[in-house]
Amino acid sequence: MFKQIVLAAATAVTIATLAGCAANAQAPASSASAEQAVAAAAEKLRVAMIDPTPTALSALVADDLSYGHSGGRVDTKDSFIGDLVAGKSDFVTIAITDQSIKVVGSSAIVRHTLTADTNDSGKPGKVQIKILGVWQQQGGQWKLLARQAVRTAA
Length: 154
Prior knowledge:
The chain has a single domain, classed as Roll (Nuclear Transport Factor 2, Chain: A). The protein has four helices and six strands, in the order H-H-H-E-E-H-E-E-E-E. The protein has helices at residues 2-24, 28-50, 54-60, 77-86; strands at 61-68, 74-75, 91-104, 107-120, 123-138, 141-151. The protein has a six-stranded mixed sheet with strand order 2-1-6-5-4-3. The chain is globular. The relative contact order is 0.15.
């Protein structure tokens, strides 16, 4: 009896795993268009970070956003948007280079280098950081779910 229960449980796990893989599988032809859609969303976020409005930023970030800064501070959706709108985090320019995008099912991994002129709380500065972003398709839109920045090697 115990062997039958274990076998039934293993079978159920296998079926669930295979169903999950099938649900996340994408045809190669759709991968390029998905990558373009993610790139477009990432570009909209870059622009919205320079000229922030709550409406534009809210449309691009997930409610469960985890936004890690290179100094170790982690923002939520509310604190990320609030700091940009209030000028605590103020990007004057943002240039994105070396961007790569890998779509995996309804998620995407985006890596790039961000170089920016800043004016955080009225204090001019420059920043160059490496970014790892995780985007997720939610309601037909790509939204930033997680981001982690690291300082570049000196």
